Amino acid sequence: MTSDNKSRFNLRGIAVASLLGTTTVLSGCASVGSAFTPSSADMAQAAQPAWQEIKQKETISRSSSYNNRAQRVSNNILAATGQNPSQWEVVVFQSDDLNAFALPGGKIGLYTGIMDLASTDGQLATIVGHEVAHVLQNHAGERYGQTAATQLGVGLAGAVLEGRGVQGSSGIQQALGLGAQVGVLLPFSRENELEADRLGLQLMAKAGYDPNEAVDFWRKMQRAKAGSGAPPEFLSTHPADDRRIAQLEGMIDEMGY
């Protein structure tokens, strides 16, 4: 949900009491999210059509320079995980977008824009290691489970309000949805990001790259995004750059680099 939602809700006494009564439902969503979490195999199957669609819609780079570099770095990171690099598909998309992703089922997508920003193989390994870490940790499945659980909690809360005859319960349910998005789903995603940062650093080091290059890359990314109007951290699925850099530096110190 976007931050420009300007809906206002007049919560009178009974409505406030009802909302407080639903706190247990919403706070329990994190604990039951695992019951909704698909396996890595299920996520791989679900991701296949999306991967094919991306390849159809985006322009695939035919540059041997980009493709060889992407394959080289990806192979090194994947070997460090114990994965067979030949079972992964690496595709470079011709675009100035500062974007990269990895999908369940062994798919890595890198955009030429972010490859240009990552001027060294170590900086590119930062990106690949981070994205592969998301797949290894089944973060996409966790996000699905967390979202499903939260939607269930919000739906139950709305049913309780309507059952009690609370006027404007549909609007209150929308407010609950916004609260769940900001209070549960986005922080959960930021937690995934930091977990992927940590594992990504470990993969970099194991593959022979200097983890300190991750800090260099994120400083570059911070400068590249300056003035872009990015949302504040509490409304973003990614940590603020300053916070991410500071935590990366702490992780690298712990690793002894």
From TrEMBL:
Coiled coil: none annotated. GO terms for cellular component: membrane. Residues 67-251 form the Peptidase M48 domain. Its cofactor is Zn(2+). CDD domains: M48C_Oma1_like. The keyword Hydrolase applies. One of its GO terms (molecular function) is metal ion binding. One of its GO terms (biological process) is proteolysis involved in protein catabolic process. InterPro entries: Mito/Outer_Membr_Metalloprot, Peptidase_M48. It comes from the Bacteria. Belongs to the peptidase M48 family. This is Zn-dependent protease.
